[in-house]
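Continuing the batch. This is chain 6 of the set; chains 1 through 5 are on the previous pages. Same settings as before, nothing changed between runs. Recording input and output for traceability.
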Amino acid sequence: MAPRKEIMKLARMIGGTPGKLNKLTEESPEYYALECVLDDEMAKCAQCAGLRKPRTVGYIAKKYGHPLEETREICHKLADTGVFTMWTDKKTGEEMCHVEIFAPGTLERMVGNREQLAAHPEIGRAFDEYTGNTGAKLAATLPMGSSLMRVIPIERSIEGLPNVEEYEKISYYLDKFDTFSVSDCSCRASRRIMGDGCGHLETDMCLHLGPCAEFYADTGKAHYVTKEEAKELLRRAEDNGLMHSIPNIHEPGDSDSICSCCACSCFGLRIGLLYGARDAISSNFKAEVDEEKCVACGQCVETCPGKALLLGQKLETKEELPPEPKGYEKITNSTWNEKKWDSDYRTNRKNTVETGTAPCKAACPAHVAVQGYLRKAAEGDFTEALKLIKKENPFPAVCGRICNHVCETECSRACIDDAVAIDDVKKFIADKDLDEKTRYVPPMVNQIGKPYDEKIAIIGSGPAGLTAAFFLAEKGYKPTVFEKAKSPGGMLMHGIPSFRLQKDVVKAEIDIIEEMGAEIKCGVEVGKDVTIQELRDQGYKGFFIAIGAQDGHALGIPGEDAEGVQAGVKFVAQDSKAKLKGKTVVVGGGNVAVDVARTAVRVTNDDVEMYCLEGADEMPAADDEVAEAKEEGVKVNNGWGPKEILTDDKGKVRGIVFKKCVSVFDNQGKFNPKYDEKETIEVECKNVLMSVGQSIDWGEVLRGEDIKLNKNGTIPVDAQTLQTEVSDIFAGGDVVTGPAFAIDAIAHGHEAAVSLHRAVHAGQNLLYGRDNRIFKSLNKDNADFERTGFDNTKRQSVKRDKSKAKTFEDGRLDLTLDQIKKETARCLKCGSTKVDEYLCVGCGLCTTRCSFDAIHLVKKTDAWGMEFERLPIAVAKQVVKRTGNIIGKKLSGGKE
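Output for chain 6:
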């Protein structure tokens, strides 16, 4: 069918881009966005207003040739659709009409009509397509600071700076007007309708000022707010990692909207972020880092919308570090084509430079800002240190006691003498959580400033499940945690003996999660008492399965079902209530086996021995844990694997036979034990505690769900999003990884919360704009520690309360305050943030995240936009200038 003539005329009028770059057809977004909602008379009427010329209704009626009231009615229809902006002139009292360019302007207002967008999702697609087409064509031609939407810095990031113009401050626009309204973000609404959202939701994101505010509110596209509410909306957006931008098609200071944007969905800033026109969208400011103050906490890196910040190192090196590969060319001095776009800009976020950063942060599965909280502890600011830990880990007191602390294993300080006692410092800091008066309960931080209504179910209350609950509650949800046991905590509460992790420590940190808004329902076995489908029927929209690996692992050897044989994890769960008579043999060499043996020592007066496949230097158990077991009287026998459990005529254990293990791993490093079947020993005993791994008891959790398990009993999920085969079900922790450490489960819980937030809101993609959480450690072999310099203090050790030896109380004491000062001084301060000035858009978000005063904005340019009508001349000049830059670069051999 041929295109409608009047619609096409109007599309050409509104789409008056510089140089008339758009040749329109019925497939053009300018056409089909209008065609789906306008009749021909509306199109004719709109043409009478002209482009960007405020007209009275009377003027339009006269030119249109229709009666005033009939024209007024059509004008109001055009305002409802978003083609017209209408307001009442305060001096004359006349109704004014205005047609703006497609973007920023008409398409945003068309998307702003929620009912219209729902009925015609092609309007959202047109907004995306139009801005994409225009951005691709204009990117290489725009002068500095002339993009049609431009970043304006967060005001607190430029306070006190010299040479700041008034119109570079958000307060200038708020003070200029007395009427304000707020609407949904049209970019994110369009992304949602296309199923293309990034998890940043659209509600109440765009602030409108003066007559624009009246138009948006009076046509139902926004609601009025006070000036103070407007300030709060902007501040809340900043707290949620959103930058600000303003329409840049007027003279400086004449903008009438302030948008709170994200890099992963904004169409207006895409011309710089995708198509490369960084100079055009950036404010006049750039970020600079004070490396002496920087602690590589990563808060600025994670929030940087321009991907201009990466974690690097500040250690002196033996060989000079190579420059960071740019991965881009500058649009201002390069020939430009699609191959040079950052096509994957919504998914290719990095955290570190190629040469790596502080090993502690990189190695930690949760990527806790170790260097950061050590600095805060050194300053005596323990509450701020605790806040920083809880950015990634809601169980610092737990982890301070039982973490496998790979941060210490990888600590650069160990190359000099001993690793920094990171966990002992963390325990000192986190013990504030044990006291209701000093504990830190994170506030709710989300875009809407109130709790979300969407219901989320978490199945299992171990570290993975409760971590997901923590971060969901922080985001404003009230997740429900279903736990089949009588009390929450999972393996933290029921799988670790009290002498290592007191129950009140676990309870204190669970109490915080409940205080934040999570509800924990114990004694409810999902699949048996209620199915996932029944929970869906009750309104639950997302599910996270985190039931852990809570069962023992059978070896299938003769006698394994004899009286006196127990699974180690079941035995430990009894804690001080456990009972044993006679000699006990623990089979296994991991941390759980050590816990089992140390628990056994406490409930029997007879001998306790461990037998494991591995040699003393191969044991998976931590060295300090093995040492403590030996101190308590446990005998460790290396290099033996169980062959048979011997029983008496009553079916009770009387001994166990072991065979010699000659190797544990094959040439590829895989677990593949080999035995000498001829060399065996028989050990007399009354109890055998099997601690050779754990298995998952799925029960009926998955009843009715089309999910197939892996051969090893784990559940298959996407490695990043943790989504299962069923789109609303996610899983994490031991049910995905197999038996692992608490910190691994915590990392999964955090990622699950990110996914669940997106999953329960329509149209949100699980990957776009997501932090990939990939960190690379610096090369310690290249570090020059002598040139770097370091404190010669030796590692501080915790003392023990000897009266609690071989009891079920934790005898480990905290470091003293003096020891904390000495230990934190041992940190080599390996990491710091690096800035790519060209990529920086000058939004100032980084400065709001830094609690170390280490990053600031500095004014670098004094460019600004202009009236849209003057842009073609500026573009022509820029084309000439850029051509000269390209020629000059070629003549200089590629040097800039």
